[in-house]
Q: What sequence folds into this?
């Protein structure tokens, strides 16, 4: 047997091994859940973390509001020290990679971004705050009204058929009586 095959296998093994090892070393950020939908007043909680796991680095992860260049924690620090009127930011919290939004409002909908401290890694999460569309109830009302109208129509239709038959029978009876006379 030629010695080439084992050599090939060995080199293949080494190449695969090193690429797999490189993939393993490439850290990523991931967020769970990657998207969330809530109704106003509910709480949102998104957990951002390093993959592979790095609990120590997770502590320094920062969440950003949609289209914001300042991390939530910095805006919060600003609010509590400068005492601006932007106290809505206090509904948000970003600690240890976990973004929490309390008392969600419709305007909280958007794409939130989690970044590591030197901004080399980031991951996005979609938050959707929605109210149950009122047209669902409107459609139900329309359907109910239509059902009533259909019932009324059918009722009238059968009523007229029954009356018609009764009338015809009465006429036939009268005609028979007439013939007898
Ligand atoms: C802090 O608040 C001031 C005034 O509202 C604002 O100009 C500044 O950009 C804020 N800084 C941060 C980090 O949000
Ligand atoms: C911030 O402003 C509120 C009123 O807007 C006031 O009650 C509170 O004492 C202020 N806090 C500080 C630290 O200045
Ligand atoms: C940070 O979060 C992770 C998982 O979410 C948890 O295991 C860890 O104990 C937390 N660390 C701190 C200091 O809160
Ligand atoms: C939640 O937010 C609404 C307005 O968006 C406000 O009227 C209500 O008082 C808030 N509730 C709490 C518990 O903060």
A:
């Amino acid at each position: 047997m030629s010695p080439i095959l084992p050599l090939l296998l060995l080199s293949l093994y080494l190449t695969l091994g090193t690429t797999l090892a490189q993939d393993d070393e490439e850290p990523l950020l991931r967020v769970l859940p990657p998207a969330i939908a809530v109704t106003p007043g509910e709480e949102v909680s998104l957990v951002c973390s390093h993959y592979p796991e790095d609990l120590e680095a997770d502590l320094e992860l920062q969440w950003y509001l949609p289209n914001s260049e300042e991390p939530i924690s910095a805006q919060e620090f600003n609010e509590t020290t400068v005492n601006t009127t932007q106290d809505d930011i206090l509904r948000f919290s970003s600690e240890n990679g976990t973004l929490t939004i309390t008392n969600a409002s419709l305007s909280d909908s958007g794409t939130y971004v989690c970044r590591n401290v030197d901004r080399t890694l980031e991951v996005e999460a979609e938050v959707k705050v929605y109210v149950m569309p009122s047209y669902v109830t409107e459609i139900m009302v329309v359907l109910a009204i239509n059902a009533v109208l259909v019932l009324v129509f059918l009722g009238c239709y059968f009523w007229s058929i029954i009356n018609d038959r009764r009338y015809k029978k009465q006429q036939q009876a009268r005609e028979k009586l007439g013939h007898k006379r």
User: Anything to note?
Assistant: The CA atoms of residues 68 and 87 lie 16 Å apart. The chain has four helices and eight strands.
